[in-house]
């Protein structure tokens, strides 16, 4: 149970972090008049992904039977969070712009870290279920 709260809280914290980075902390272009720039879209999409990751963390704590699926969902959220500024939506093409030189790398690294934490948790859950299965098999044979 402690592990569930720990990973759930970690997912919530990472989700909030991605949202704060996207909506508040990182510099993204504000656009030119009515023109919406790719970096603005990246900011919005990654911010929403952060909210979704936080919701997965809440669900991870609240629904223990769904922990494996929610761990996989956090991995997917981290991967998407990293891919949005790099591939899916992108940022300004100008390398001197803050969204290109600062915001994109920070969101990519944060997304990769989220995915790695999710992978580590999935491995933990897999090992725990294997150990539990072996324990059940041993008790059934005696």
UniProtKB/TrEMBL annotation:
* Family matches, as Pfam families: DUF4418
TM region(s), chain numbering:
6-26, 47-63, 69-94, 106-126
InterPro entries cross-referenced by the UniProt entry: DUF4418
The protein's UniProt keywords, in alphabetical order, are:
Membrane, Transmembrane, Transmembrane helix
What is the name of this protein? Uncharacterized protein
Q: Which organism is it from?
A: Fibrobacter succinogenes (strain ATCC 19169 / S85)
């Amino acid at each position: 149970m402690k592990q569930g709260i720990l990973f759930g809280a970690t997912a919530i914290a990472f989700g909030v972090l991605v949202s704060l980075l996207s909506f508040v902390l990182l510099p993204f272009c504000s656009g030119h008049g009515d023109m919406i720039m790719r970096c603005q879209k990246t900011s919005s999409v990654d911010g929403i992904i952060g909210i979704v990751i936080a919701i997965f963390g809440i669900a991870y704590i609240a629904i223990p039977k769904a922990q494996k699926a929610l761990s996989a969902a956090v991995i997917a959220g981290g991967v998407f969070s990293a891919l949005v500024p790099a591939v899916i939506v992108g940022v300004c093409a100008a390398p001197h712009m803050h969204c290109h030189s600062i915001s994109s790398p920070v969101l990519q690294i944060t997304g990769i870290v989220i995915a790695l934490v999710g992978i580590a948790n999935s491995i933990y859950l897999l090992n725990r279920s294997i150990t539990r299965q072996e324990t059940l098999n041993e008790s059934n044979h005696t």
